[in-house]
Design a protein that fits this description.
The complex is a heterotrimer of chains A (372), B (341) and C (310). By secondary structure, chain A is of the alpha/beta class. Chain A contains 14 helices and twelve strands. In chain A, strand 11 and strand 12 form a beta hairpin. Chain A starts with 25 loop residues before the first strand and ends with a helix. By secondary structure, chain B is mostly helical. Chain B contains twelve helices and two strands. The longest helix of chain B has 39 residues. Chain C has one domain: MetI-like fold (Orthogonal Bundle), CATH 1.10.3720. Helices cover 66% and strands 0% of the residues of chain C. The two termini of chain C are 27 Å apart. Classes of the chains: A alpha/beta (372), B mainly alpha (341), C mainly alpha (310).
Chain lengths: 372, 341, 310
């Protein structure tokens, strides 16, 4: 792009396509998305038909174990999957289909309408350019402004995400900054063009616990500044609870439960969600409460057997579960949906009702109690 | 950066000194010019007299111990005939007699060899980087497989055999064209009367083409493989993904982020490639009958001409060390992580 | 593992609900490596060709009636025929007999140099990496110094000076002596990172000696790299030996080697091409097949390099 001497006018007008029949409030819409990777052992079905919507300014959390397909879904939306990936279904950003777009068209959307923050801040920045350069680059690619203006904007952005001495840090190389600082730079890059959606893929997983809170608050600031919707991908239920409005739970490449934060945390009606909650230490529970793990491992995504993928680990699995995979169906009017044949039976269930503390553990504990 | 450069520069001196000691010891221990001369004289049927041998020993400084001879060779300090002392620019006496001067011979041939090594190195780097990058971007495509296969072929090709082959190809092309496009013998025409500057240039290039191709083969193979690997590693890195997530066009990402970063590790190879090119030059000059340093080295070696051999080894060693230094400094300029100030 | 009925185990307890859905087979490290290697078609093909070359070089001379030496009953300068498939020289050598001998010499040199280099590199690299401090400093400076001078020139300077002609093992020993430095650096780098890992600390905490740590813990972890090193070195050694012989600084007559045969055939390339092509092509085939096998091994031992699927 050419640099001209136009003053840096912050672009506020979001020129979405004219609203027709569709809900104009939806900024990101994923519809029956599937992603498969050919490997030496066969096709890995990483994502098996995922649909969800994100509304303007809304924060959506996606939780699941590693390998559940939560990152792959968002990389597919960004068009960042390797060429070998086979994608079907649809993903629309502000009503525009992005699956199958060519590089030129995708480049106009990436960073501008939808931006992404990756897991490892240590490797997310190019080691040979200053952070200021990498920030200015993001500004310049979507705005016809001068280099000076872009650099000024870079300093502003660093200040917004809470980096001290931004005028100096703008000249620093990534290796001169700590992990938390680098992640804040990545957040600054993500918010540089006031996107409509920011996807944060485990933004705090690689960081120290003490730094996580700072990075999350930088993310909140970025959202406030841009008014962007947030898709927060994580396996950390604690992070989800405080930062999102709605939660999608993923297992084996599918959504298995979807609802508001309260519904998911206090009224879950799918065994896997219950299991996740049961393995999470909670401050609001009695001291003696035991953690209940989900036994076993997630299934291989090559040659999935028929039926519910969670059935092998599910304490309430019945023969039906091994034959027929349940669909994600609404269970009330507010949009709480589950994918379980026996959701209705789980109303009001607690993790402890389904899952038990490990037997060995209990034995050891009772032995200890006898001794004392 | 300045501190780093100076420190790096100072490090060259002890390395070269130690290398000179090491090489001197090896060459001195493995070959004895006096014994070789006696042997040659006996072969002609006129054995050398005891006096003649003593005279030779005195002239070649073989009348003293190895440490003394090394010291004299390096510094030229102590009683001598004024023809020895590397630090004073004197390479020492040759077995062929006082009429010959090693320093003069080496410097007259230096340019010839530098020309060959320089052109071949540049050709191999440029070709290697281009094909390596293409290979990486089109990983596992037909093109990638073809490039990789040719890389392996180049890597496994005996330089001298390929040289002879390509020489024949050159002659065949000349015959087909009806005029001499490629010269296959020597580095320049022997008769150059009435040559304009342009004629000389064309003449030199005509002589240079085939040897350069021959010599660049091995370096090309190494560079292209390394560049491919380095590029692939960068292409799979998170910061490339972030650069694309910013909305940069693919070719901008390739140029500014991938290529720029992937070139850095390739730099370290340049030094190794200089050493390899000097090795290759010895073979290439033999095939194309160039009167360069490489050929000089082989000829002198066969006479066990210790000081001449040492001169060549030290000169090529210095070239390698300087290339190393340049690569290191360039590395520090290009990669901000290396700058220690 | 494809069983989906979750039977009770011997003790009558239901087994842990393990991932019954995992249908891919469990494989040992060696099986994985072999499997990956055998998928590299060029490497497998190369292995086959190289075995043929070995048979040609070592079994061939037993079966073929002519060796590499001069025989008065061989007609001079004959083009290839049934009696002499590769033709004959002007002096009266059978070219096939000579190529067999030369190939044998090349392979012997390559094997010796590659084993020697791998052994020295492993030893120096692990000692320098593990012991650190001045030992590391001294060894690595030695490496720096050896690397200053172009290796082939250095080898030539030593080998060419050996009086009365070199034999294959002299050439191999000299080559081996100058090849290890680069690879010892690589091994040292690996050891430096291994050294920081917990299992070495654990071994130390249990009172294992340095020798034991090197032999039982460090070297097994560098095996992959060492195998790859050995193949790369074998290929370069073939080319180096041929180059030396071509300069008449390697194996000397009356013995023969492929490089020497190319040297002698240089001027006769047009008139008697059968003298020129067989030794050169043989060098190329050996080096090429070893390089392909090395590539296959590297892919198989270090699958990270080929993460993206074929």
């Amino acid at each position: 792009m050419t640099t001209s001497d136009y003053r840096n006018e912050p672009e506020i007008a979001i020129s979405g396509p004219p609203t027709e029949a569709r809900d104009s409030d939806v900024v990101l819409e994923v519809d029956n998305l599937t992603v498969t990777f050919p490997t030496e052992d066969g096709l890995v079905k990483a994502v098996r038909g995922v649909s969800y919507q994100v509304r303007r300014g809304e924060a959506l959390g996606i939780v699941g174990e590693s390998g559940s397909g939560k990152s792959v879904t968002s990389l597919a939306v960004m068009g960042l999957l390797p060429k070998t990936a086979r994608i079907t279904g649809s993903a629309r950003v502000l009503g525009e289909e992005v699956i199958g777009l060519d590089d030129a068209a995708l480049s106009k959307i990436r960073g501008k309408r939808i931006s992404m923050i990756f897991q490892d801040p240590l490797t997310s920045l190019n080691p040979v350019y200053t952070v200021g350069y990498q920030l200015a680059e993001a500004v310049l690619v979507h705005n016809d402004v001068s280099k000076q203006a872009a650099e000024k904007r870079a300093v502003e952005l660093l200040e917004i995400v809470g980096i001290p001495y931004p005028e100096q840090r703008v000249h620093a190389y990534p290796h001169e900054l700590s992990g938390g600082m680098r992640q804040r730079v990545v957040i600054a890059i993500a918010m540089a063009n006031d996107p409509d959606v920011i996807i944060a893929d485990e933004p705090t997983t690689a960081l120290d616990v003490t730094v996580q809170a700072q990075v999350l608050s930088a993310l909140e600031t970025a959202r406030k500044e841009t008014g962007a919707a947030l898709v927060l991908i994580t396996h950390d239920l604690g992070v989800i609870a405080g930062h999102v409005d709605r939660v999608n739970v993923m297992y084996a490449g599918k959504l298995v439960e979807s609802g508001s934060v309260d519904e998911i945390f206090y009224r879950p009606q799918m065994p896997y969600t219950l299991g996740l909650l049961g393995s999470l230490p909670r401050m609001d529970e009695a001291r003696g409460a035991r953690l209940t793990p989900i036994l076993g491992t997630p299934p291989s995504l090559v040659n999935l057997p028929p039926g519910c993928p969670f059935a092998p680990r599910c304490p309430i699995a019945k023969p039906q579960c091994r034959e027929e995979e349940p669909a994600l169906l609404p269970i009330n009017e507010s949009g709480h949906s589950t994918a379980c044949h026996f959701s209705a039976e789980l109303e009001g269930a607690k993790p402890g009702d389904l899952f038990k503390p490990i037997a060995v553990d209990a034995d050891a504990l009772s032995e200890l109690e006898e001794q004392s | 950066m300045l501190v780093y450069s100076v420190r790096r520069l100072l490090l060259v001196i002890p390395i070269l000194l130690a290398a000179s000691m090491f090489v001197f010891l090896l060459v001195d221990l493995s070959g004895d010019p006096i014994a070789e001369l006696i042997f040659q004289a006996e072969a002609t049927g006129e054995p050398l007299s005891q006096e003649a041998i003593e005279g030779l020993e005195k002239r070649l400084y073989y009348d003293r111990s190895i440490p003394e001879r090394y010291w004299l060779w390096l510094t030229g300090l102590g009683p001598n005939n004024g023809d020895i002392g590397l630090l004073q620019g004197k390479f020492g006496p040759t077995v062929r007699g006082t009429a010959f001067d090693i320093g003069g011979e080496i410097s007259s041939r230096l340019w010839t060899t530098l020309r060959l090594v320089g052109f071949a190195t540049i050709l191999s780097i440029v070709l290697g980087i281009i094909t390596g990058v293409i290979s990486a971007i089109r990983q596992y495509s037909k093109l990638d497989h073809t490039i990789t296969f040719f890389g392996f072929l180049a890597l496994s090709m005996p330089v001298f055999w390929f040289g002879v082959l390509i020489k024949e190809v050159g002659i065949t092309i000349n015959n087909l064209l009806g005029f001499r496009l490629f010269a296959t013998v020597g580095s320049q025409s022997t008769v150059r009367e009435g040559f304009t500057a342009w004629d000389t240039f064309v003449d030199i290039m005509g002589h240079l083409a085939l040897p350069t191709i021959t010599l660049s083969l091995l370096g090309y193979a190494v560079f292209s493989r390394f560049q491919r690997a380095s590029m692939l590693e960068v292409l799979n890195s998170d910061y490339i993904r972030l650069a694309r997530a910013k909305g940069l066009r693919n070719r901008v990402v390739m140029r500014k982020h991938a290529l720029r970063t992937a070139l850095i590790p390739v730099l370290t190879l340049v030094t190794l490639s200089i050493a390899g090119s000097v090795d290759g030059a010895v073979l290439t000059e033999t095939v194309f009958q160039w009167q360069g340093l490489g050929r000089y080295f082989v000829d002198r070696l066969k006479d066990a001409d210790t000081f001449a051999v040492m001169g060549f080894l030290m000169l090529s060693g210095t070239m390698v060390v300087i290339a190393n230094l340049v690569a290191d400094l360039l590395y520090a300029v290009l990669d901000p992580r290396i700058r220690y100030d | 593992m494809t069983d989906t009925t979750t039977p009770l185990d011997q003790d009558g307890r239901p087994p842990l609900p393990d991932a019954e859905a995992i249908t891919t087979k469990e494989r040992s490290q060696l099986q994985l490596v072999t499997r990956r290697f055998f998928r590299h078609k060029l490497a497998v093909g190369s292995l086959f060709v190289l075995l043929l070359v070995f048979a040609f070089a070592f079994i061939g001379p037993e079966l073929w009636k002519w060796d590499h030496t001069l025989h008065r009953e061989i007609p001079p300068s004959q083009p290839p025929s049934l009696a002499h498939p590769f033709g004959t020289t002007s002096a009266g050598h059978d070219v096939m007999g000579m190529v067999m001998r030369g190939t044998q010499q090349s392979l012997k040199v390559a094997l010796t140099v590659s084993l020697m280099t791998a052994a020295i590199a492993a030893l120096v690299g692990s000692i320098a990496g593990l012991l650190g401090r001045w030992i590391d400093g001294a060894l690595m400076r030695l490496v720096d110094i050896i690397l200053v001078v172009p290796p082939l020139a250095l080898v030539a300077a030593v080998a060419g000076n050996v009086r009365g002609g070199s034999t294959w093992y002299a050439v191999a020993l000299i080559l081996g002596f100058f090849t290890w430095p680069v690879y010892s650096r690589i091994i040292r780098g690996m050891v430096l990172s291994l050294r920081e890992q917990e299992f070495i600390e654990a071994a130390r905490a249990m009172g294992a000696s340095n020798v034991r740590i090197i032999l039982r813990h460090l070297l097994p972890n560098t095996t992959g790299q060492l195998i790859v090193t050995a193949t790369i070195v074998a290929a370069t050694a073939i080319l180096a030996e041929a180059g030396l012989s071509f300069l008449q600084l390697g194996i000397q007559p009356p013995d023969t080697s492929l490089g020497l045969q190319v040297q002698n055939a240089m001027s006769a390339m047009k008139t008697r091409p059968w003298l020129f092509y067989p030794p050169g092509i043989m060098i190329l085939i050996i080096a090429l097949t070893i390089n392909f096998i090395g590539d296959g091994l590297r892919d198989a031992l270090d699958p990270r390099q080929t993460m993206v699927r074929r």
